[in-house]
């Protein structure tokens, strides 16, 4: 567990002196920088320590923090990165020049438990200076503000520079820049930025990374900024450097403004500086506090365990990942995992700032539980308006405008939007028309999937099939509510068949692990005992598919497709735990699957196509939901997820899986994605599930159909029959519950949804029966024509029979 000191949020702001008067940039700059395009660009590590954006939509800028500095900044949408990094450089003018990132010990604190407000405190390892930075986004405009206090601790005077590496419009190449009006401006296509300081800059220059015109290269040579270039007009990897006038204890504000052109960006930076940091920061904090106040009460599982700040940050994180131009579109993470090893020259790599319908389902179900159904409804609208394809499918993921990012197909991502629509009671005719397309696609293409939820292999996947079955049962209910009883019957029939077959497709009885009886991760052909090989497409190697397991089969329980006590589910847990579970200093966590290659290399280097998969905290949350479904406690799982968070209360995608090494701490985040929205959502949803005593995401319509707890089957008879005044419709059949063919004992049906007549009859499980519909008018009885109808009370706790009167 984290120490109390590390976990405590620091609320009080530093008391700062008045800002210094603006100082003009020194004269005699050179004209245009040489050296274009400069060295190649990359992004930064995916392990963020803090991030933020204004709660409102007027400010379309998002900042991220890590390594003691500012990382990527996004504008005007949450999938468009514009900054590689922004940090300070300190020099004594004679003996040293130091990057803030590389030469300080670092502390990060959350300054307000009800706001995404972070402070970085960096102290020089040589003891000469301390830099304290408090970050906010101006809620009124697209500007990031960094209130900075620079203290000389010994041996002054020192010089301070802001080193800015713009990577505008999702590309480290293609940027041009200049000094204009005392600010450093840059642009690339539709995105421009302006770097400004409340003090002004003493010197300012624009150049190309790694060349003689790079201000940091120049400064590092003799510790004095010599050449200054007032423009860098050839597109390339732009670097900008501005000297800030400082004394022994100086407080000032740095602003990074964005706009569609340089003038707009400069105007935003100037206006934000003129308004002052304190005013913008107060409004920023108020916006987030107001959002939290609009939600449901904090769960007892959270407040009773002292986890309220962690819970609030999780909820704010989910909201902060929603775009402000495309409402309802939440990216998976404001990160590019192992971005320091990713080519940042072009615009092709989406990183995790793309929209997956599966991740959006996880986020939305957490938001529903927390009282933000409005956000979840925006996401449903986005899914079915922007992402859904004409054939009813959903892409693997997209950019915000719906353009493909990665291009495979994952059948669970077709199913989850249907389940989400059902959970939000979106039963209107317009939604049904869209749901029907997706349900029909599932029927036509399922249950096998080109990729399952780990996005690397295809075949018969327990987790994917669980989502498909849940999607079809939810679609059937929506169909019935819209009078399409034919589609409803078809979806239920297919779902029941797949539910009955999922073990036969994916449960091996001849595996090499444990007693050989367990669900394996995925089966290529639906024969789990044939020993077919599977090639793990992340550097994990080639293996007998029976030897590769994950805990994805738990989705069968969480989605209501199988009861928690299902013998095949129970039989698989020992193999999962013995193969995938690690007891970390923060609690129990699990790998995605054995031989996973998606993680740092064995020596701790960034993943570039092969590595060692690490532990995923969200899997601890999923296991907690399963334990609840079994009637067991899950508080340990909740505490473990909270303990995996960093000092900024951000829960990672992956944590280090062994004794601390290579710069990583056992049980804490790696260079993958931190925060991962799915991880934060799982934490929120588990907390509400603990309070409810059951997983809150489980669709009741699915659980009711497949629960083994019911003693019989509720058969719902629906017949489309036109009648005249005084006429009524009944169902009668060969069983006593159906009147034993005696019209006097026939079951009356309700005309509440005329011309549909409906009624429910309790039947024993497995009972076969015959029936027909009759019409009564006074003492007269009219039987429908044709042969006896037949049915069997199998497949779950409910049975829907949808017919049309045969005259």
Structure notes:
With 807 residues, the protein is an alpha+beta fold. The chain folds into three domains: 50-288, Beta-galactosidase, Chain A, domain 5 (Distorted Sandwich), CATH 2.70.98.10; 333-338 and 351-707, Glycosyltransferase (Alpha/alpha barrel), CATH 1.50.10.10; 712-804, Sandwich (Immunoglobulin-like), CATH 2.60.40.10. It is built from 18 helices and 34 strands. It has a ten-stranded mixed beta sheet with strand order 1-16-12-13-14-18-10-9-8-7. Helix 15 runs parallel beside helix 17. The radius of gyration is 30 Å and the shape is elongated. Residues 1-23 have low confidence and may be disordered. Pfam families: CBM_20, Glucodextran_N, Glyco_hydro_15.
Helical coverage, percent range: 25-40%
CATH C-level name of the largest domain = Mainly Alpha
Strand content: 15-25%
Number of DSSP strand runs: 34
Mean pLDDT: 93
Number of helices: 18
Round the Cα radius of gyration to an integer and report it.
30 Å
Low-confidence stretches: 1-23
Q: How many domains make up the coordinates?
A: 3
Main beta-sheet strand count, sense and barrel state? 10 strands, mixed
Categorize the overall geometry: elongated
Spatial order of the strands in the main sheet? 1-16-12-13-14-18-10-9-8-7
Query: How far apart are the termini?
Result: 72 Å
Class from secondary-structure proportions = alpha+beta
According to CATH, the fold-level topology of the largest domain is Glycosyltransferase
Which CATH architecture of the largest domain?
Alpha/alpha barrel
Organism: Amycolatopsis keratiniphila
Family: Belongs to the glycosyl hydrolase 13 family.
Keywords: Glycosidase, Hydrolase, Signal
Catalytic activity: Endohydrolysis of (1->4)-alpha-D-glucosidic linkages in polysaccharides containing three or more (1->4)-alpha-linked D-glucose units
């Amino acid at each position: 567990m984290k120490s109390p000191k590390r976990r405590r949020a620091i609320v009080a702001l530093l008391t700062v002196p008045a800002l210094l008067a603006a100082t003009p940039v020194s004269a005699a700059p050179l004209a245009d920088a040489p050296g274009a395009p400069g060295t190649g660009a990359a992004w930064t590590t995916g392990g963020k320590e803090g991030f933020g954006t204004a709660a409102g939509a007027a400010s379309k800028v998002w900042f991220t923090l890590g390594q003691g500095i500012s990382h990527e900044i996004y504008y005007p949408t949450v999938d468009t990165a514009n900054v590689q990094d922004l940090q300070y450089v300190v020099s004594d003018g004679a003996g040293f020049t130091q990057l803030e990132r590389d030469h300080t010990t670092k502390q990060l604190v959350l300054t307000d438990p009800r706001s995404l407000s972070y402070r970085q405190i960096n102290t020089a390892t040589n003891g000469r200076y301390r830099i304290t930075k408090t970050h906010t986004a101006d809620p009124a405009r697209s500007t990031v503000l960094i209130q900075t206090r620079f203290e000389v601790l010994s041996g002054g005077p020192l010089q301070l520079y802001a080193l800015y590496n713009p990577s505008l419009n999702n590309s480290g190449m293609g940027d041009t820049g200049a000094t204009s009006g005392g600010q450093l401006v840059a642009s690339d296509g539709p995105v421009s930025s302006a770097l400004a300081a409340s003090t002004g800059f003493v010197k300012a220059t624009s150049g190309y990374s790694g060349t003689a015109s790079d201000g940091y290269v120049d400064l590092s040579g003799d510790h004095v900024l010599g050449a200054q270039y007032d423009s860098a007009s050839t597109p390339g990897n732009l670097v900008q450097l501005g000297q800030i006038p400082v004394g022994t204890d100086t407080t000032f504000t740095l602003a990074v403004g964005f706009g569609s052109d340089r003038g707009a960006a400069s105007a935003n930076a100037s206006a934000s500086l003129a308004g002052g940091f304190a005013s913008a920061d107060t409004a920023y904090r108020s916006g987030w506090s107001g959002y939290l106040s609009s939600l449901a009460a904090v769960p007892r599982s959270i407040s009773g365990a002292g986890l309220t700040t962690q819970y609030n940050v999780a909820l704010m994180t989910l909201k902060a990942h929603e775009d402000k131009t495309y409402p309802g579109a939440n990216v998976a993470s404001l990160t590019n995992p192992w971005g320091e090893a990713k080519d940042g020259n072009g615009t092709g790599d989406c990183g995790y700032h793309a929209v997956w319908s599966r991740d959006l389902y996880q986020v939305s179900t957490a938001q529903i539980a927390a009282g933000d159904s409005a956000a979840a409804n925006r996401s449903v609208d986005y899914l079915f308006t922007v992402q859904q394809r004409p054939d009813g499918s959903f892409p693997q993921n997209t950019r915000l405008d719906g353009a493909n990012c990665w291009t495979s197909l994952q059948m669970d991502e077709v199913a989850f939007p249907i389940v989400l629509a059902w959970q939000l009671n979106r039963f209107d005719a317009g939604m049904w028309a869209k749901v029907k397309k997706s349900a029909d696609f599932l029927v036509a293409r399922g249950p096998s999937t080109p990729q399952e939820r780990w996005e690397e292999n295809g075949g018969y996947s327990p987790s994917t099939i669980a989502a498909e079955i849940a999607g079809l049962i939810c679609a059937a209910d929506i169909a019935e509510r819209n009078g399409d009883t034919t589609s409803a019957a078809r979806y239920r029939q297919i779902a029941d068949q797949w539910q009955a077959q999922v073990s036969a497709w994916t449960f091996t009885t001849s595996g090499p692990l444990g007693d050989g009886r367990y669900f394996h991760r995925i089966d290529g052909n639906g024969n789990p005992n044939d020993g077919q090989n599977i090639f793990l497409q992340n550097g994990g190697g080639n293996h007998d598919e029976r030897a590769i397991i994950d805990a994805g089969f738990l989705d069968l329980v969480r989605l209501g497709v199988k009861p928690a006590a299902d013998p095949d589910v129970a039989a698989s847990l020992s193999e999962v735990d013995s193969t995938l579970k690690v007891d970390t200093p923060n609690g129990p966590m699990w790998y995605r699957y054995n031989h996973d290659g998606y993680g740092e290399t064995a020596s701790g280097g960034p993943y570039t196509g092969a590595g060692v998969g690490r532990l995923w905290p969200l899997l601890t949350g999923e296991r907690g939901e399963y334990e609840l479904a079994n009637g067991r406690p899950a508080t340990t799982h909740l505490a473990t997820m909270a303990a995996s968070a960093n000092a900024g209360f951000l829960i990672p995608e992956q944590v280090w899986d062994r004794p601390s090494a290579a710069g990583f701490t056992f049980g804490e985040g790696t260079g993958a994605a931190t925060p991962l929205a799915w991880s934060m959502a799982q934490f929120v949803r588990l907390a509400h599930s603990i309070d409810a005593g059951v997983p809150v995401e489980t669709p009741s319509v699915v659980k009711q159909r497949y629960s083994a707890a019911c003693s019989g089957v509720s058969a719902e008879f629906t017949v489309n029959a036109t009648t005249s005044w005084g006429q009524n419709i009944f169902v009668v059949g060969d069983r006593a519950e159906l009147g034993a063919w005696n019209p006097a004992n026939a079951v009356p049906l309700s005309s509440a949804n005329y011309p549909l007549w409906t009624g429910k009859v309790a039947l024993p499980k497995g009972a076969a029966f015959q029936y027909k519909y009759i019409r009564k008018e006074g003492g007269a009885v009219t039987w429908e024509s044709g042969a006896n109808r037949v049915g069997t009370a199998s497949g779950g706790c409910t049975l829907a029979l949808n017919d049309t009167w045969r005259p």
